[in-house]
# Entry
Amino acid sequence: MEAVEAYQRDVIWPANYNEIPKEIFVRQDLYQAEIARIFRGPEWHPVAHESEVPNKGDFKTCNLADVPLLVIRGQDDKVRAFYNACSHRSNQIEVKPSGNRSEFECPYHRWLFNSEGELVGCPNQREFTPGFDKADFPLAQPRQDSVGGLLFVTLSDETESLDAFLQEAKSSLLNIMGGDGRLKLLGYHRVRYLTNWKAYGDNDGYHPPLLHQAFTLLNWQGGAGRQYATTGRGHYCIDTELTVPQPTSLIRDSSVIEYRDEGRPKRSSVLALFPMLVASSYLNVISIRFATPTAIDEVEVNYAYFAHQDDDEAMIRHRIRQSSNAIGPSGLISMEDASVFHRVQIGNRTPGRAVFQKGVSDPSRLSFEFRQNDESGNLPHWEYYRTAMGFRRAAA
Amino acid sequence: MTRLTLDEHDRLDELQSRYITALDGKNMQSWLDTFVDDPAASYICMARSDFENGLQVAMMLDDCRDRLIDRCTFITEIWAGTFQDYRTRHFAQRVQTNRLENGNIAMSSNFSVVFSPDDTGLPQQLAVGTYEDIIKMDESDCRFLSRTTLTDNAVLPRYLVFPI
# Structure
């Protein structure tokens, strides 16, 4: 029988599905448990899109919570994720954020690995343990799989397949990635937010027309659409018809909010995969936000922006200019989100519960289909989190 | 190419000071006024690592005069009242100048920016890096044709409201 953790004993989850105890955002022992049960547990975490390492030998380093990873495109053109640690004494292998190498040498004892992670050299091996074989010491790899070139890893052997994890969200993810995932990297915004990872992942459908002043000032109305949550795993997606505001004198360079035909359905989509991925297609901006907690009250978010491989030069330039100024931590449309991430975390230091209202018709029941501007779309995400962390729900 | 004179260096430093004073005072019109009134005027702020890797998405990509004006509109009208305000202190040191063949001046400066959020009051490093500028200078005027802010820190410690 699994031992009851202190946080499971102390925090009684409210009976109503629309109430969240604020204590969970600030409790240090819970944060440590989340790292173990979620980030090192049976979940899939996206770590790179293949287009970020387009050439053989290209690599990038990143962290999944506190675990350092190294993503390399091998000479065989396959993209793999490795633990960023030597298979000998676990010295960090690569220190640069990105680059290109045909071989990766650990400076400690000069063990040498090729771009497929195989150990190809190690000094003094005649003095090693009997039967030593280089083939037994490649760079270690977490379990991994990919969808549309988006590489996921899981640190647990018990995680179900990636397809089973994604459920209906798989097709939404592919649609956001241009339909087929054939992307071209345009660049990044990298920022840290002073917020708990759960507050970062709790953006809802209710707030956009209210928080984001660009919509109000440009008289920008959203199109028709739907919001759904997967029946397990806590993913949710808002998918609507894309609307573009009428020309306005408020903005001189309207290209920041201009939509150019991509030859695909004109949609606006935001997908949140549990625990932290946000992928979005908005106007002509294709964005995948790789995020990870760095502390109980801090997350690092790498907004990666993409073009489609079939884009012409004019479309690529348009996407670069729009990605830079429309969406992101300093974007015309989205800067306010960044502010809210900080402020919600400050407010969560107060006692009590956060209460969801918009779209909640019956707090005692969980639903999975919502109107696009409901905040109730987040509730299956919270219910999945509650069960993943083993919180008891109070009796109704 | 002739070396820049002491007077020209003095005018470059005066432009730098006007830029700093504008941003530290959150006076966006004064910030705009440090750029030439030319459709090609530009301000770009991005991570040095992205610039060196040939990536073009920027934290702020105001590559024409209209976008410079829009930047001021974002801050003073569209985002007003929604962000946690903060005050900056910019420290800049001119390290290199060159007169270009077309008469413009290229200037590089190191910078360090400290910010103090209104809510906590605790100062923190916001960014460190270099300014890479092209400056138009004639007898009566001295302004940026372009200023590119390259941050050595690839990761910003918070969201940006104001240019750096």
